[in-house]
Amino acid sequence: MDYQVSFTEPARDDLRAIVSFIAQDSPQRALSFRDRLLAEAESLGRLPLRGRFLKGHSQVRRILCGDYLILYRVHEAERVVEVLRFWHGARGTPRF
Predict the structure, then answer these.
(1) Can you give the C-alpha Rg of the chain in angstroms?
(2) Alpha carbon distance 40, 45 (integer Å)
(3) Which residues contact 83 (CB under 8 A, 6 or more apart)?
(4) How far apart are CA 25 and CA 70, in angstroms?
(5) What is the pLDDT of residues 70-83, one digit of tens each?
(6) Neighbouring C-beta atoms of residue 53, cutoff 10 Å
(7) Cα–Cα distance between 70 and 35 in angstroms, integer?
(8) Is 89 left (phi over 0), alpha (psi -120 to 50) or beta?
(9) What angle separates helix 27-42 from helix 9-23, to the nearest 10 degrees?
(10) pLDDT per residue over 39-88, tens digit each?
(11) DSSP label at 91?
């Protein structure tokens, strides 16, 4: 059975900012990349433990999508994947 995938407000804000930034050059590419990020995040419902732990954060995992990290936490008892942030890899590690 798949896990439910949920998105925190900071993750939603990140996604809006990413789309807005890319749309300055190409609105079509921005929407396409948004869909790619969301599809990758939603795929965590099928394989939630596939990401590596984020250095220094024993409960936060990461997967890569293009230049962006999808940072998430798995709540196994509730069968929920909580997407915490969409974060550009060049920006270092976000604070939680």
Answers:
(1) 13
(2) 10
(3) 5, 6, 7, 8, 11, 41, 44, 70, 71, 72
(4) 23
(5) 999 999 999 999 99
(6) 11
(7) 13
(8) alpha
(9) 150
(10) 999 999 999 999 999 998 999 999 999 999 999 999 999 999 999 999 99
(11) G
89 is written with which tokens? 């890899």
pTM, whole model, 2 decimals?
0.94
Q: Reply yes or no on whether the pLDDT at 92 is more than 90.
A: no
Q: How far is CA 8 from the centre of its chain?
A: 10
Q: Which amino acid is at 26?
A: S
Domains and CATH numbers, the chain: 4-90 (3.30.2310.20)
How far is it, in rounded angstroms, from Cα 88 to Cα 94? 10
